[in-house]
């Protein structure tokens, strides 16, 4: 399936100069949505990642992380924007292609010794994914890989990530 044909390009959103890769046009397509989740699931299985938990970042990481966790027989752990999680949290500040933000995770999110897979819709500068990897490090769990639907290669996001497998479906 040609996933690129289902991803809509919106110039100058949310700021001038940013070419926004819009996944809502993919999500609304039943075959595209199924293919996306099934293909990422198969890539994780082929790579032997066998995570105990899938971590998804608010908000677009939730959309893909939850069904992937379900398919892999793993739990889903949300990484959220500040002030949203009710329990004790680890916090980290990070850079985005168009600003800065903070992310939080529950300190007791994982059972000790857990294997963790990070999933998001897109990697651009790698700020979000790199920060999430640092959050997982703070919990003491083992990061086993990353899964992204879209990688924007020119922005060099991979260089901010630890040396674990990175699975992607579409590259620009
Ligand atoms: O690699 P980076 O430069 O960090 O950019 C990628 C991140 O940016 C987007 O999220 P955003 O913060 O816009 O939030 P949203 O999911 O709530 O739209 C996207 O969903 C990734 O999480
Ligand atoms: N160019 C882009 N398109 C969609 N989401 C993004 N998040 C960060 N950069 C993005």
Describe this structure in words.
The chain has helices spanning 24-27, 30-46, 60-72, 127-139, and strands spanning 8-11, 19-22, 53-57, 75-79, 89-96, 99-106, 115-123, 142-151, 166-171. The chain has one domain (49-171): Rossmann fold. It is built from four helices and nine strands, in the order ββααβαββββαββ. The strands form three sheets. A five-stranded parallel beta sheet has the order 4-3-7-8-9, with helices on both faces. It is an alpha/beta fold. The two termini are 16 Å apart. The site of 1-O-pyrophosphono-5-O-phosphono-alpha-D-ribofuranose has 18 residues, from helix 3, strand 7 and helix 4.
Number of helices: 4
Shape: globular
Number of self-contained structural domains:
1
Question: Which class of secondary structure composition applies to the elements?
Answer: alpha/beta
CATH top level is Alpha Beta
Share of residues in strands: 25-35%
User: Helical percent range?
Assistant: 25-40%
- How confident is the prediction overall: mean pLDDT? 96
Strand order of the largest sheet: 4-3-7-8-9
The CATH topology annotation reads as Rossmann fold
At CATH level 2, the architecture is: 3-Layer(aba) Sandwich
Ligands: 1-O-pyrophosphono-5-O-phosphono-alpha-D-ribofuranose, adenine
**Can you count the beta strands?**
9
Catalytic activity: AMP + diphosphate = 5-phospho-alpha-D-ribose 1-diphosphate + adenine
Protein name: Adenine phosphoribosyltransferase
Function: Catalyzes a salvage reaction resulting in the formation of AMP, that is energically less costly than de novo synthesis.
GO molecular function, one term: adenine phosphoribosyltransferase activity
